[in-house]
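I have been asked to look over a protein record a colleague put together. This is what I was given:
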Amino acid sequence: MDMFLSIYQPKRGKNPMANVKGIDGSSLPPCHSVLLEQIKRTNAICSVWRNGTVFNPQVILPSGNGWQLVEEKYSPVWFQGDMVPTTIEDMILDFSNEEEMDEDATNVSSDDESDCSLSDVD
């Protein structure tokens, strides 16, 4: 039993992260601004495919929808705005604004539910 435990027992050290060799960044989800640009690009490409059999298609233009024209070629726009916040204070303020918006959205949806009643339904 001791030999089994010495091989398979979890190693507990002073630094539990010492066994982590590396982190694969591709498994992390994209941030909001990157995700928004990906959705815009996907929408523009789907518009082309969706209207592929139409005689006069109404296609979404790529420029401004996740793509930009650089040297007569389209290249993807990865995100809008700054890559990183200029200060930690900006991060904290952005986070508090997001929390306020979430609370407002929750209050609006609960108000809508309270306006509905079973007597309104025929």
Q: What stands out?
A: DSSP finds three helices and two strands in the chain. The first strand starts at residue 67 and ends at 70.
